[in-house]
Amino acid sequence: xxxxxxxxxxxxxxxxxxxxLAKFLIEQYGGADGELSAALRYLNQRYTIPDKVIGxxxxxxTEEFAHLEMIATMVFKLTKDATPEQMKAAxxxxxxxxxxxxxxxxxxGGVPWTATYIQAKGDPIADLYEDIAAEEKARATYQWIIxxxxxxxxxxxxxxxxxxxxxxxxxxxxxxxxxxxxxGKKRIF
Amino acid sequence: MFxxxxxxxxxxxxxxxxxxxxxxTYSTPPNLYMGFQPPNLPQFxxxxxxxxxxxxxxxxxxxxxxxxxxxxxRS
Lengths: 189, 75
Fold this sequence. Notes:
The complex is a heterodimer of chains A (189) and B (75). Chain A is 62% helix and 0% strand. Chain A has 189 residues and is an all-alpha fold. In chain A, helix 3 (35-45) runs antiparallel to helix 4 (51-79). Chain A starts with 18 loop residues before the first helix and ends in a 9-residue tail after the last helix. Chain B is largely without helices or strands. Chain B has helices spanning 31-34, 46-52; strands spanning 5-8, 24-27. In chain B, strands 1-2 form a two-stranded antiparallel sheet. The A-B interface holds A 10, 139-140, 142-143, 146-147, 149-150, 152, 155-156, 159-164, 166-167, 169-170, 173-174, 177 and B 27, 29-31, 34-37, 50-54, 59-68, 71-72, 75. Chain A: It comes from Cytobacillus solani. Chain A: This is Spore coat protein CotJC.
């Protein structure tokens, strides 16, 4: 069960009307290494992972939904008042034809989200290594979006999200350390 | 000295069609070096931590675009 708090994890402020940026940001919404993929990947893998790290996957998977909500807010703010002409000029003409100004789970190229972006191999090490890779890829995606964006307010929120990817990667790495820890090893406290 | 950004110098051919990018940089955030987090790392204050995205100072690694370093400043 989840408890919903009706506020964003970190404030999202958008200072310029720039639908083009929304087209790039949608990569983190419905892309292979986006927040939706991350949330669904972790919350699904947690059923077949050793007890010690289930809670970690639950926590991080839940936080990814909070990130998804932030990205949605950014994309919405950047496009909500965009005219069809502006959408066309931003390369979102095809999106407008199909969705008006609605959000959709697709990547920056307009490819709809697919479950093939995520894996559940059932092998704890394989799954956690996938999760670490996903966090590093999401971190890189945030960097490339920051490089293309000149919206300082938006970049501030993106920097926060990138920092969280670093922390998540760290925690997944620690989960691997817990799982590979030798069982029955003599412990000295 | 530790830096979370590394650089390399790609080969530049005399026949490259575009003006060359002489230095390429990439990010190597602190989580790559930490292993299991050691106890008693320095912390941000709660309010600072909410802004930074982490409670732990050694994990804080803000990223700024190399293309507009001058305009950005830590707010």
